[in-house]
Amino acid sequence: MRSRILTVLFVLALLGLTSAVGCGGGTNESTTTSAAGSEATSAQTTETGGPATGETITLKYAFFAPANSFPAVQMEKWADEVEKRTNGRVKVETFPGGTLLTAKNMYDGVLQGVADIGLSCPTYEPGRFPLLSLNDLPGLYPNAKVAGLTFYDLIQEFKPAELDKFKVITAFATEPGYIATVKKVASLADLKGMEIRSPGGPKALEALGAASVGMPMSEVGQSLQTGVIDGYLSSREVLKDFKFAEKTKYVADYPLGVISFAALMSKEKWDSLPADVQKVIDDLGAEMSLFAGSYLDDHVKESMTYAQGQGVTFVTLSDAEKAKWDAALQPLEQTAVSQVAGAGLPAEDFLGKLREKAAAYAQQYK
Questions:
Q1: Per-residue pLDDT reduced to its tens digit, 222-276
Q2: Residues 96, 99, 105, 106: what is their CA dihedral angle, to the nearest 10 degrees?
Q3: Which of 49, 93, 131, 334 is buried most, with the most CB atoms less than 10 Å from its CB?
Q4: Hey, how many other C-beta atoms are within 10 angstroms of the C-beta on 56?
Q5: 257 with 206: CB under 8 angstroms?
Q6: How far apart are CA 222 and CA 355, in angstroms?
Q7: DSSP 92-155
């Protein structure tokens, strides 16, 4: 009898303990989990509203392109650095390849809380990011390092109103885009009417007389194979990364515009992070811009060597022909600046500072 009474008392005590633990204070449900053994702090928050010391913060980081693409390499590097510099307090889950959000809904998905950080191209939404779109005009940059660092600096300096809802985690860019084709292009006459895939942004292909075809990079290989397009406009690492050197045997050696990338977090999410975590992320901003640019510039050299081994010819334009291309593109810049300025934005000042910083970085990173 005594044994049964003790058993009942033990069960009642256990139920009471479980109930007490289950009714503890709330935690950040979407992105933070309590660290093991931190019952005393799981219900607490810092003065800034962030998770208390001892909690693990989990951030979801989304990107639309495959894991082997250079922006995704940057994403993984950023995740590793954040985890290391916070001594494991921050964990980053990466979702490349459109597994969480696609290019079409990346930034809206961040604002809706689907991802904590979204990496995409402001160029894909020029109406939403008009001032930032000027960074992708042709003829501004010699390489990815200069383009990315300039872009990041200009964002910090101008703090565009179009980014008011976001915190910029980092920003970088490709090298200038080049036109790769199935048939040789050495003149505007050769290019006229050719169906060329465009990544969006400034209408350089149309200005040069080509027919621009908008499509994601994932569809380019099949479209080249079936003759839907005659070539594409992109930075040159795709010759190797996507094996396009097997299909396009000519690249016109004339640099056009870059494609800019921005990793954005919602202001609401940013404000929820502890100050020490914010500092780690801020300290990585320019560093990751340089990392991404350096990685791509080095990788482009490897890709060009690979492409030449596949029989690709890099076609040098004559001076006279280059002057024709320059002249054809000149109105593009004037139109873009006029449109952005017409929206009440400091387009001329932005472009002027951009050129100033790009020249300085070009001397540093030749």
A1: 999 999 999 999 999 999 989 999 999 999 999 999 999 999 999 999 999 999 9
A2: -30
A3: 131
A4: 17
A5: no
A6: 38
A7: EEEE-TTSS--TTTHHHHHHTTS-SEEEE-GGG-TTTSTTGGGGG-TTS-SSHHHHHHHHHHHH
Considering the entire predicted model, what is its pTM?
A: 0.82
One-letter amino acid identity for 168? V
Distances (CA, A) of 209 to 193, 198, 223, 329: 6, 13, 20, 10
Nearest-Å Rg of the Cα atoms of the chain is 25
Length, in residues, of the chain: 366
The whole-chain average pLDDT of the chain stands at 87
- Structural tokens at position 98: 């459109």
Query: 135-152 burial, b for 16+ CB within 10 Å, e for fewer?
Result: bbbbbbbbbbbbbbbbbb
- Residue 362 in tokens: 């070009």
